[in-house]
Amino acid sequence: MNNVEMARSYLRQAKERVKHAREALETGNYAYTIRQSQEAVELALKGVLRLLAIEPPKWHDVGPILKRHRDKFPEWFRSRIDELASMSRKLRREREASMYGDEETGTPPDQLYSRADAEEALSYAETTLSLCVRLLEEFI
Where are the alpha helices (DSSP H) in the chain? Predict the structure, then answer.
């Protein structure tokens, strides 16, 4: 499988997660919206790294790798890398809590998040996905 095929696959998976995040938002499952949004951002960003033949890291926040390789991206994408890295970092912080809750305080995931939290996470995922899809379309 080549880099373009891998990128397409990652972005297809990211789209699916955004779809499920939207559904979860509409049903009031805010923790799941956040979890799916985080996964969508991670997959989309790892997809564009693969597109440019940059091996994605095995960890969840790829922002530092994007920054390190900023010069390999077209200017329009490069100008958004700090924003993308910030969204990735913020969602990474919520990855475990959105699934398991806050084990320190014994708060389940359903009680941690509001609709506003979920809407923000979904917005991050939609923005990231849109930019990454545009990059893929321009690349091929």
Answer: 3-26, 30-51, 63-68, 75-78, 81-94, 97-100, 115-139
Instruction: Collect all residues with Cβ–Cβ distance below 8 Å to 1 and sequence separation of at least 6.
Output: 9
How many structural domains does the chain have?
Answer: 1
pLDDT tens for each residue of the chain, 140 residues long:
699 999 999 999 999 999 999 999 999 999 999 999 999 999 999 999 999 989 887 878 899 999 999 999 999 999 999 999 999 999 999 999 999 999 999 999 999 999 999 999 999 999 999 999 999 999 87
Closest Cα to residue 18, out of 6, 2, 1, 34? 34
Nearest to 35 by CA among 118, 105, 106: 118
| Residue ranges making up the domain that contains 117 | 3-139
For residue 46, give the CATH number of its domain: 1.20.120.330
Task: Please answer whether residues 68 and 49 qualify as being in contact, where contact means their C-beta atoms are separated by less than 8 angstroms.
Answer: no
Length of the chain: 140
Verdict on whether the full-model pTM lies above 0.85: yes
